[in-house]
Specification:
Elements: H1 2-29, E1 47-49, E2 55-58, E3 77-78, E4 87-93, E5 99-106, E6 123-129, E7 132-135, E8 141-143, E9 151-157, E10 162-167, E11 172-177, E12 186-191, E13 204-207
Antiparallel strand pairs: 1-2, 2-13, 3-12, 4-9, 4-13, 5-6, 5-12, 6-7, 7-8, 9-10, 10-11
């Protein structure tokens, strides 16, 4: 019994120290923070964007021009800002949502058909759906999180080929894509997901 208690205590201490280390690391990310706004020219016609370009949620289908940049099959919208070097970091509030997808994509991503989210197709994302978190890797990876993320941080290191996702409030790493091959501009990608009987109506909110 004593060994069990000691083991539990040691595990708790290790978890606390790990959280402190990740928390310190995440504070450093602020020097790489970028101001991301949503690009209405890329938004699926069923998405509503706030005037300041910081929020997106599902809405009624609108009659919008079918310009080359716009997603027409998948409920996605991209950020206006593109990145082709260095590190960049942004945070997204997902509080109150039961379905969301966040990440980055190559600029050349297919906008007009169904997309299989995977690094092979130039898309690096994490999704939350039905109380389950998954990294859309090759193959997809189920992520057994200990808490429900309220705000997610996304860090990209272009030269290192790294895309990492963090639970901001828990100061915990959610998942890292490593060894990524980047050779064109990257854009932040967002999906607020579908509504389920009135649930998941909250917007995704880019902060600050």
């Amino acid at each position: 019994m004593m060994k069990t208690l000691v083991g539990v205590k040691m595990k708790t201490l290790v978890e606390v120290e790990m959280k402190k280390l990740v928390g310190v690391e995440m504070k450093r990310f602020q020097e790489f923070a970028v101001d991301v706004t949503l690009d209405p020219e890329t938004a699926h016609p069923q998405l509503f964007l706030s005037d300041d370009g910081k929020q997106v949620k599902l809405d009624v289908m609108k009659n919008l021009p079918n310009n080359p940049e716009r997603f027409t099959s998948c409920l996605y919208v991209l950020g206006k800002q593109s990145f082709s070097s260095g590190r960049f970091y942004f945070e997204v509030q997902v509080k109150g949502k039961t379905d969301w997808t966040l990440g980055v994509t190559r600029e050349s991503v297919n906008r007009k058909g169904d997309i299989r989210l995977s690094p092979q197709n130039g898309v690096w994302t994490v999704e939350w759906m039905n109380n389950s978190c998954n990294a859309r890797d090759d193959p997809p990876v189920h992520l057994p999180l200990t808490s429900v993320p309220q705000k997610v941080g996304v860090l990209v290191d272009y030269e290192e080929g790294l895309v990492s996702f963090y639970d901001v409030e828990a100061a915990a790493l959610i998942y890292s894509f490593t060894g990524c091959s980047f050779w064109e501009k990257l854009l932040p990608l967002f999906s607020p997901g579908l509504h389920y009987f009135g649930r998941n109506s909250s917007p995704l909110i880019i902060s600050p």
